[in-house]
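Quick review question:
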């Protein structure tokens, strides 16, 4: 493993991402199917901010466990119980309770855990505020998607814009599926996380597309690489950059998600960090294994690239162009010219 890591960081590893597009498509279909099944079977665990409810906060002895809390609230008449630990004690969310049931719950908690009844605080939240947040998030998502399509179409081309949008939707659905299967609560912080991963995924895709545009800009009838080979070459040259960016970004998010929530009970940050953690991992995968192969599939249908592929296949160039490692990423390499460095190596 250490040898592979060293070769990867020296840029000596050539992974055939585009050539394995059927594998990536199959894996993505499986992930999407599992995610959609989770949303259909379990649905999203919407937080109290979206559906309304009663939120009780109180301190309890250190030895108190979550099952004791749930049992106490259930015996007092509550049904939809979500118990969470916080730095100051416990936060328990239930369905909207009438005044008499609220008093019953407060008395039961006070008796069970030995706290004064007036220290079992109540916060009643209506669903209208969460609905407004959700509507604004949907509007923001639509505007964001339209802006992406416009920018990528002007800066690159519509086929790159379409590939990027498909990758973004891919990331959103899989992240939502993780929330559905895990039962994590969806809060306004979660929506912020969803919108954040869109920007992260787009950044990764734009870096890859910019390199592909540079490498394939001068592909012509005399080129010694097909569009597929040139795109895969460009993808490998951005591979270490994508992995480094993901690793640096994901370390603090993982610390919040796994360490912060375990030791410090970071409730709101937990909702945000899960979306970021899953989105960053899936976003890196989609930019490498979904967006680029889809772009190549669309581009290889163009007549000039079909003619180039047929010519290289007829002369055996398609098989030898990428033999024994990576090709130079310079534009001249795409046209079949040999760099000075390569000439010195031959000497």
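Suggested answer, residue by residue:
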């Amino acid at each position: 493993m250490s040898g592979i890591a060293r070769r990867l960081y020296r840029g000596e590893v050539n992974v055939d991402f585009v050539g394995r597009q059927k594998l990536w498509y199959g894996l993505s279909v499986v992930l999407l199917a599992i995610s959609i099944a989770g949303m259909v079977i379990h649905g999203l665990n919407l937080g109290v901010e979206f559906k309304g409810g009663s939120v009780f906060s109180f301190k309890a002895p250190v030895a108190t466990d979550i099952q004791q809390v749930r049992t106490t609230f259930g015996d007092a008449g509550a049904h939809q119980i979500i118990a969470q630990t916080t730095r100051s004690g416990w936060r328990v969310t239930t369905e909207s309770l009438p005044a008499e049931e609220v008093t019953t719950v407060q008395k039961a908690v006070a008796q069970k855990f030995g706290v004064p009844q007036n220290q079992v605080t109540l916060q009643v939240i209506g669903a209208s505020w969460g609905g407004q947040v959700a509507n604004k998030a949907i509007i923001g998502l639509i505007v964001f998607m339209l802006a992406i399509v416009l920018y990528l179409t002007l800066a690159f081309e519509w086929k790159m814009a379409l590939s990027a949008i498909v990758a973004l939707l891919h990331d959103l659905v899989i992240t939502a599926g993780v929330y559905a299967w895990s039962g994590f609560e969806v809060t306004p912080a979660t929506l912020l996380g969803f919108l954040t991963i869109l920007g992260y995924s787009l950044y990764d895709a734009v870096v890859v597309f910019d390199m592909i545009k540079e490498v394939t800009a001068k592909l012509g009838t005399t080129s010694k690489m097909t569009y597929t080979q040139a795109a895969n070459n460009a993808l490998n040259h951005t591979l270490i950059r994508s992995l480094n960016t993901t690793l640096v970004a994901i370390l603090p998010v993982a610390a919040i998600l796994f360490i912060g929530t375990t030791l410090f009970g970071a409730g709101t940050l937990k909702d945000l960090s899960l979306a970021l953690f899953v989105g960053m991992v899936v976003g890196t995968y989609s930019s490498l294994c979904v967006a680029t192969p889809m772009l190549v599939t669309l581009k290889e249908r163009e007549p000039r690239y079909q003619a180039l592929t047929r010519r290289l296949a007829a002369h055996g160039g398609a098989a030898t162009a990428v033999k024994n490692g990576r090709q130079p990423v310079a534009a001249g390499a795409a046209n079949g010219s040999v760099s000075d460095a390569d000439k010195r190596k031959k000497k």
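Why it works: The chain has two domains: 53-125, 131-308. The first helix runs from residue 2 to 9.
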